[in-house]
Specification:
The protein is α+β, with helices and mostly antiparallel strands. It is built from one helix and six strands. Helices cover 14% and strands 31% of the residues.
């Protein structure tokens, strides 16, 4: 009887250990969900000789924004950079690399970087002589706006 109790206990412990080792821990969802890029417009016209595209866009990004055009299979066909020329709802972008085609959707790849410049330093004026009116360099008597002489 003793042998069977020891065997039962040992067998139970071994099975419990094997069961814990094979069970998978639940995976945590990513902290930041992966965002699908938003389509901002479509390529309307391509001028590969000059190297620009005309994009019809619902959201007009600032100049310097890097865009990507996508094929129907959602692979990148070109990298574009928004210029200052625009006539809503159209914007012009230079072709940086690749070959875009009319009708392809366009997504934002990278927003332009704005340099962080410190606030301008405004010089403080020199201490005044106490009078709210400027001194005359010619030595002529000073008068107030109402014509009365100043002390």
């Amino acid at each position: 009887m003793r042998l069977s109790i020891k065997t039962t206990v040992l067998l139970t412990l071994v099975l419990a250990h094997v069961g814990c080792a094979t069970s998978q821990k639940p995976q945590r969802p990513p902290l930041v969900p992966e965002r699908k890029p938003t389509v901002i417009g479509n390529v309307s016209l391509v001028n590969s000789k000059v190297g620009f595209v005309l994009i019809e866009s619902r959201n007009i990004p600032p100049a310097g924004t890097v865009l990507k055009s996508l094929s129907p299979q959602e692979t990148e066909t070109a990298t574009l950079k928004v210029t200052f020329e625009r006539q809503p709802p159209f914007i012009i972008a230079d072709i940086i690399k690749g070959s875009p085609y009319p009708g392809e959707p366009v997504i934002v790849a990278e927003l332009p970087r704005t340099p962080r410049t410190p606030a301008p330093i405004i010089p403080t004026p020199p201490p005044s002589s106490g009078s709210p009116f400027p001194a005359d360099a010619g030595g002529a008597p000073q008068t107030a706006p109402d014509g009365l002489p100043l002390p």
